[in-house]
């Protein structure tokens, strides 16, 4: 097409567009587009911070906190009455059949009717929205008053987990092992005075809470504003009617964490970020920009931007949304000029109403988002400006990625045309010794260690994660199964989510999808895990179908599923979900003869049956393994099987409460990693797996419920790698030359005894040497993932393995018998941190012998001290048996290691020196430089 022709064609298209939308609108859209393009350069600098932009102010600092000593002593401002807890059994196996819902009736006045309207925005059918009753319960309660003296309350900054400091409640304590033996249940208050400037008079003002555990109820200046019961939800309250601009406003938040409400450690408190958001009366709605892409290739991509505009003014408003698209660099900063501008047709919105407007554009040569190592997680930002009467009135930034997802039932998930098998793990929301208080660096460290193992996917078991976790997975290129619920109507623990499900499932599900749907890392939704409704035939499937529909009403670009540990191909449940998401069923459950006749779930391997029954759906394993081990603890005899259960003398020892790190044992319904690898390889149509779990987590310490934390992590609670890490690495990173020997070689009591040696390697063959003498060269057979020398007689000295690939030397590993503990050694994950009062350094303390070899059996007391502008926040050693409170500055090493977590002081740069000292071993110092914010 020559230039003149192209000009005429453009003119023709413009006239057609004008015809469609009317002359006046066309002219204003044109003016705004020209203005936007011209202004783009100058506004780039302002984007996100300019005067029209949303102001989102962190109000994490300077809260006062008070928790009642006991539930009995708490005030009576309850959200709703709860059933009496009749069943306190703590160690119920994870795959127990869930119970019926409790129906609770009460004549008491509860605050629920005032809280329910908070969720109205997420109830589709206007007739079902809640009307706030008259009055403001709790308004005369002292804690909500501005003049209440809270100076004796604790000062805390958010995110805050009130339970993590402990103390652990002990073996017969109130809180069982399932919930981690930490005091997460209870009722507590948070108070803060917030300054609202006079200039905010004309603004709409919101409180944005990313997560509060749980049953939050909020008062401002003595008036009950609203709340949100689900502890994993992110939610917003409109403070505008209650705010008094130009003075301090008193915010008071009451939380109530029921006992027996979770199968794992839920934490307690306002454990995620909290924001004050301010905008003009015409503004982008909550999570109001939805960016989708279509016809994606490396040459071009279509981008559709749908904007929901709220008009909080009393008058009609005609508003246009102009969205500029920018590339982001790897740190999330906008680069260069806008790559495209999308002007959406004018929306006319009644006062107090809302409207949607949608526009699209095609961009050339998009930088696609995809998972490393073969692809790059490129991202974009959509900067949306709202225009009213030719003036910008609001601006909002939304990050997104451009990628093409294809789900092939015979092979798996294609991203930008490349088949990517899921090498995934499940993650709970706690961050070990830091508890559930979200911390971006701690989560990033989790992901970094998983990445080193070759992991490329995360399932957010079993609830919505912190928003920042998805920012990390976007940036780092992990694939995410974003999961909403563990429970629907049928309960797993007496006071869990089933109590609020009937009133809140729609709001929780819509809020969850709207919050997360722009994240390129989220590739599918999960709206349930092993729910009891699998057992209720058509009724359960009907509920699943309703939940599925809610998700697809909010997002049609991703499939939605619910994980099944029981439902079979001929049951109604799997028919109503998009993805066959199996927990343990792929490998089969309790197939060993000893389980014959058991009333527990027994299932033959199910991949083929599901694939046959649902040839149009992809199949994956949302949970595999649940294999157990204690880092560095090896128990004998070693099973000859590739996968076995845990019993005393069979991989476990209930006296010391440890499971053998030969990595061959799993929960009764699970399988070892080796067995899972085999079954996935034998079913090439399977899209991959999410291992239960990547990291150990607090609570659910199966098989020893007397303890505090899990055994199923590939990485322990402190972040130290178990041997299993190398088994996964050998399989998931086949191109990385590596070999790993187990066990350690310090067995003074086993001289002459059979002490099997196993090797994990990405090679295909290996030769093992003991003190220079070959113990034979072995080759992996098909579906074998470890090399085993099961008849080695222990003699102290050196084990050396040389691994080969295709006959050529590939990798080597050495394990030596060490001398006795002689020294401490310390090493930090980073030598520089930011002096922002938030950044962390993770320091590993290692016991070594006099030659500097790590002593793998050393369980030795160490004390920690710190000098300089930083503090010790927590310590750990990864032992599920340890009841030493996490903030303790003294701790035994476990299998030779301990962890110290250090936090910088705000605005105070300098050298932080952490000293570890142990009797007879002297001291070791780690130096961390805390740098001012200007070095960011
Ligand atoms: C699964 C369950 C997980 C966890 C796991 C422990 O059945 O979905 O949440 O409990 O068992 O093995």
What does this protein look like?
The protein is built from 11 helices and 47 strands. The chain is 14% helix and 33% strand. It has an 8-stranded parallel beta sheet. Strands 3-2-4-9-6-7 form a 6-stranded antiparallel beta sheet, with no helix packed on it. Strands 40-47-46-42-44 form a 5-stranded mixed beta sheet, with no helix packed on it. The chain is globular and about 90 Å long. It has 936 residues and is an alpha+beta fold. Helix 4 (440-453) packs parallel to helix 5 and helix 6 (501-516) runs parallel beside helix 7. The two termini are 49 Å apart. The model is unreliable at 1-50 (pLDDT under 50). Bound molecules: beta-D-galactopyranose. Beta-D-galactopyranose (GAL) binds at residues 94-95, 263, 461-462, 529-530, 565, 583, 623, 626, 667, 692, 700, 702, 712. Beta-D-galactopyranose (GAL) is lined by residues 94-95, 263, 461-462, 529-530, 565, 583, 623, 626, 667, 692, 700, 702, 712.
Layout of secondary structure:
Layout: H1 3-21, H2 23-46, E1 55-58, E2 63-67, H3 112-115, E3 154-156, E4 186-196, E5 204-209, E6 216-220, E7 223-228, E8 235-238, E9 247-257, E10 274-279, E11 282-294, E12 300-311, E13 317-328, E14 334-349, E15 354-364, E16 379-388, E17 391-400, E18 405-408, E19 412-415, E20 418-420, E21 422-426, H4 440-453, E22 457-459, H5 467-476, E23 479-483, H6 501-516, E24 522-529, H7 537-554, E25 560-563, H8 572-575, E26 580-583, H9 607-613, E27 619-625, E28 647-648, E29 651-653, E30 658-659, H10 673-681, E31 688-692, H11 723-732, E32 739-742, E33 757-761, E34 765-770, E35 773-779, E36 787-789, E37 798-805, E38 808-816, E39 823-828, E40 832-834, E41 840-848, E42 861-867, E43 870-876, E44 890-892, E45 897-904, E46 910-918, E47 922-931
Parallel strand pairs: 21-22, 21-31, 22-23, 23-24, 24-25, 26-27, 27-31, 28-29, 40-47
Antiparallel strand pairs: 1-10, 2-3, 2-4, 4-9, 5-8, 5-10, 6-7, 6-9, 11-12, 12-15, 13-14, 13-16, 16-17, 18-19, 19-20, 29-30, 32-33, 33-36, 34-35, 34-37, 37-38, 39-41, 41-45, 42-44, 42-46, 43-45, 46-47
The structure holds beta-D-galactopyranose (GAL).
């Amino acid at each position: 097409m020559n230039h003149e022709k192209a000009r005429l064609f453009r003119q023709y298209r413009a006239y057609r567009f004008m015809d469609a939308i009317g002359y006046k609108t066309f002219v204003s859209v044109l003016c705004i587009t020209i203005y936007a393009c011209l202004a783009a350069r100058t506004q780039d600098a302002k984007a996100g911070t300019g005067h029209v932009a949303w102001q989102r102010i962190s109000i994490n600092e300077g809260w006062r906190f008070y928790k009642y000593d006991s539930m009995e002593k708490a005030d009576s401002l309850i959200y709703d009455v709860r059933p009496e807890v009749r069943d306190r059994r703590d160690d119920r196996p994870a795959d127990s059949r869930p119970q019926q819902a409790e129906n609770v009736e009460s004549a008491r006045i509860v605050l629920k009717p005032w809280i329910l309207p908070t969720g109205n925005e997420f109830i589709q059918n206007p007739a079902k929205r809640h009307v706030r009753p008259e009055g403001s319960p709790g308004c005369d309660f002292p804690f909500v008053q501005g003049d209440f003296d809270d100076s004796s309350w604790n000062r805390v900054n958010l995110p805050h987990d009130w339970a993590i400091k402990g103390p652990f409640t002990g073996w017969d304590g109130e809180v069982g092992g399932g919930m981690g033996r930490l005091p997460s249940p209870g009722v507590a208050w948070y108070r803060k005075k917030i300054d609202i400037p006079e200039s905010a008079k004309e603004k709409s003002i919101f409180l944005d809470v990313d997560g509060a555990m749980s049953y939050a109820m909020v008062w401002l200046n003595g008036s009950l504003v609203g709340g949100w019961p689900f502890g994993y939800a992110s939610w917003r309250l409109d403070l505008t009617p209650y705010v008094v601009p130009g003075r301090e406003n008193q915010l008071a938040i009451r939380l109530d964490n029921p006992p027996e409400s979770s199968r794992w450690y839920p934490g307690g408190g306002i454990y995620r970020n909290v924001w004050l958001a301010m905008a003009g009366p015409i503004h982008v709605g909550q999570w109001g920009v939805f960016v989708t892409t279509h016809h994606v290739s490396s040459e071009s991509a279509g981008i559709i931007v749908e904007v929901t505009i709220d008009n909080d003014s009393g008058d009609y408003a005609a508003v246009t949304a102009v969205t500029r698209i920018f590339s982001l660099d790897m740190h999330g900063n906008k680069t260069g000029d806008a790559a495209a501008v999308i002007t959406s047709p004018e929306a006319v919105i009644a006062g107090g109403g809302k409207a949607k407007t949608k526009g699209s554009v095609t961009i050339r040569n998009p930088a696609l988002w995809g998972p490393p190592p073969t692809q790059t997680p490129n991202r974009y930002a959509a900067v949306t400006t709202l225009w009213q009467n030719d003036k910008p009135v609001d601006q909002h930034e939304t990050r997104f990625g451009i990628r093409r997802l294809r789900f092939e039932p015979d092979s798996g998930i294609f991203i930008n045309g490349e088949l990517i098998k899921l090498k995934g793990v499940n993650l709970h929301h706690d961050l070990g010794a830091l508890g559930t208080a979200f911390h971006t660096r701690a989560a990033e460290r989790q992901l970094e260690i998983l990445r080193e193992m070759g992991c490329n996917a995360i399932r957010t078991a079993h609830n919505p994660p912190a928003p920042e976790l998805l920012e990390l997975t976007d940036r780092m290129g992990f694939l995410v199964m974003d999961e909403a619920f563990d429970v629907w109507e049928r309960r797993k623990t007496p006071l869990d989510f089933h109590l609020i499900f009937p009133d809140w499932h729609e709001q929780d599900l819509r809020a969850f999808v709207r919050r997360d749907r722009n994240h390129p890392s989220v590739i599918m939704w999960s709206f349930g895990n092993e729910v009891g409704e699998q057992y209720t035939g058509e009724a359960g499937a009907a509920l699943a179908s309703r939940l599925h529909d809610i998700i697809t009403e909010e997002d049609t670009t991703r499939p939605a599923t619910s994980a099944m540990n029981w439902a079979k191909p001929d049951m109604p449940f799997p028919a109503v979900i998009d993805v066959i998401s199996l927990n343990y069923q792929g490998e089969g459950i309790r197939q060993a003869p000893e389980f014959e006749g058991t009333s527990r779930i027994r299932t033959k391997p199910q991949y083929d049956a599901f694939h046959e029954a649902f040839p149009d759906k992809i199949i994956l394993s949302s949970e595999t393994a649940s294999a157990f081990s204690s880092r560095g603890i090896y128990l004998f005899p070693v099973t000859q099987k590739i996968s076995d259960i845990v019993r005393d003398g069979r991989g476990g020892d209930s006296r010391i409460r440890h499971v053998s790190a030969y990595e061959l044992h799993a929960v009764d319904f699970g399988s070892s990693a080796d067995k899972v690898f085999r079954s996935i390889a034998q079913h090439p149509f399977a899209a991959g797996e999410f291992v239960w779990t990547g990291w150990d987590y607090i609570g659910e310490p199966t098989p020893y419920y007397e303890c505090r934390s899990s055994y199923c992590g590939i990485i322990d609670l402190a972040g130290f790698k178990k041997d299993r890490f190398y088994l996964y690495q050998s399989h998931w990173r086949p191109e990385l030359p590596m070999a790993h020997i187990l066990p350690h070689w310090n067995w003074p009591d086993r001289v002459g005894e059979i002490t099997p040696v196993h090797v994990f390697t990405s090679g295909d063959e290996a030769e093992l040497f003991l003190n220079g003498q070959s113990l034979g060269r072995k080759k992996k057979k098909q579906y074998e993932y470890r090399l085993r020398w099961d008849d080695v007689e222990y003699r102290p000295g050196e084990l050396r393995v040389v691994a080969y690939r295709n006959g050529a030397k590939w990798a080597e590993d050495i394990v030596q018998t060490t001398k006795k503990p002689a020294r401490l050694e310390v090493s930090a994950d980073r030598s520089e941190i930011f002096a922002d009062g938030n950044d962390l350094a993770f320091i590993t303390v290692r016991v070594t012998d006099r030659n500097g070899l790590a002593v793998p059996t050393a369980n030795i007391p160490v004390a920690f001290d710190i000098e300089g502008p930083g503090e010790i926040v927590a310590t750990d050693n990864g032992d599920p048996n340890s009841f030493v409170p996490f903030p303790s500055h003294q701790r035994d090493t476990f299998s030779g290691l301990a962890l110290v977590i250090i936090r910088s002081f705000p605005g105070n740069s300098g050298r932080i020196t952490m000293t570890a000292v142990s009797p007879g071993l002297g001291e070791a110092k780690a130096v961390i430089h805390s740098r001012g914010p200007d070095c960011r």
